[in-house]
Design brief:
By secondary structure, the chain is mostly helical. It has one domain (6-63). The chain has helices at 6-21, 28-42, 48-64. α1 (6-21) runs parallel beside α3 (48-64).
């Protein structure tokens, strides 16, 4: 398992923020606040498995538009 680089994580953050700005049927402020909160909470993760899991979770949200 390869841990995502800092650049990849920052790119994911940027894409999630852009995605949130284009939402129509969801509360934008809630979504954007949630994204910022998750990234802030996960900033201190050091376990590569947890970092990879969180990164994949964000990518899934972008691809499918939701998290199951």
């Amino acid at each position: 398992m390869v841990q995502p680089s800092r650049q990849q994580i920052l790119r994911l953050y940027k894409h999630l923020i852009r995605y949130g700005n284009h939402l129509k049927l969801t509360d934008k402020n809630y979504f954007l606040g949630r994204v910022r909160h998750e990234f802030r909470d996960n900033r201190s993760l050091t376990n590569p498995v947890e970092v990879e899991f969180s990164f994949k979770r964000g990518e899934t949200l972008l691809k499918k538009g939701r998290i199951l």
